Description:
Order of helices and strands: EEEHEEEHHHEHEHEEHHEEEEEEEEEE
Number of domains: 2
CATH superfamily of the largest domain: P-loop containing nucleotide triphosphate hydrolases
Strand content: 25-35%
Distance between the termini: 34 Å
CATH class of the largest domain: Alpha Beta
CATH architecture of the largest domain: 3-Layer(aba) Sandwich
Radius of gyration: 24 Å
Shape: globular
Helix content: 10-25%
CATH topology of the largest domain: Rossmann fold
Amino acid sequence: MAMTLENVTKIVAKECHIDNISLQLEPGTFNILLGRTLSGKTTLMRLMAGLERPSQGRILIDGQDMTRIPVRKRDVAMVYQQFINYPSMTVYKNIASPLRLAKVAGKEIDRRVREVAEVLHIDALLDRFPNELSGGQQQRTAIARALVKDTELLLLDEPLVNLDYKLREELRIEMREIFKRRKSIVIYATTEPLEALALGGNTAVLHEGHLEQFGSTIDVYQHPQSTRIAQAFSDPAMNFFNGTIDSGTLQLGNKEPMPLRHHLEELPPGSYQFGMRPSHLHLQRKSDDDIEFQTTIDLIEISGSETFIHIIHNGHTWISQQQGIHAYQMGQPIQAYVDLAQLYVFNLDGHRVASPKNDSLELT
């Protein structure tokens, strides 16, 4: 089953929630909708599910127009960030409920319920009620109820957002393995770039109802088509500075012109925006190709085994992501460095001109 969105638009009270999106999704693929809150992820999923109708455009399944077909007549399952289970039913009955509605034979129901429960490690909880479960166990139950239907279209709307970090990591790994074995189209919405990178597959970046870019997750990460996508697909957001290229050199403010190297050698003369990931902005020189900036420490954030150092350069705040715990003084002058080979290049309109050739898939 292939799904095609043709110029899909959704307008609510004269406000455009989804703007002219076209997309082709193939069976057996895992697809991520990445975007900030209110970017249109949930609305687009509801349109795909048939819970809402587009104001314009069509949604086709294997070439058949499904735009006006109600959700009950579609082969679809959806999991929300707020796990929804029937409190008066056991875990077993919760998982079995869609199969019973579909009048599946009793032995087949039992086989499928126990199989999916084992995969999600809740097979020992089948006789319990939802109020006897932890949050993670309840969400596993909700996911199991969706998986047991074995639908052609499975939609997951930020299903792990309310779980603690360790549980999210565990379920991401489990779900990635589960979906590898399915022929469904799986669509997974998230606000977190790290989650998109961890899950892989394909990623569609949404912003204010617009589809900004769609492709393999690694390709979108390594080759963002605009500064907006580069910021959305970096956590913390990518840092930027302006510069000019002329006569084979890079000019930054009153610095001495630097010879172009690596992917920058192919750029024509002109003014550009240069992007650097926080993990590539160092506070010690790493190579002879490093650009040096004079900066001032503005804020220190320690998160687990990492330190996020906010620095100010010419009135702009950048973030440097450093492994380990580091102590600096607020207002302390400090040099920051970035390797020419790790710079992204965008024109002044924000469109990508060049990407690093060796940007490793670091979860930043």
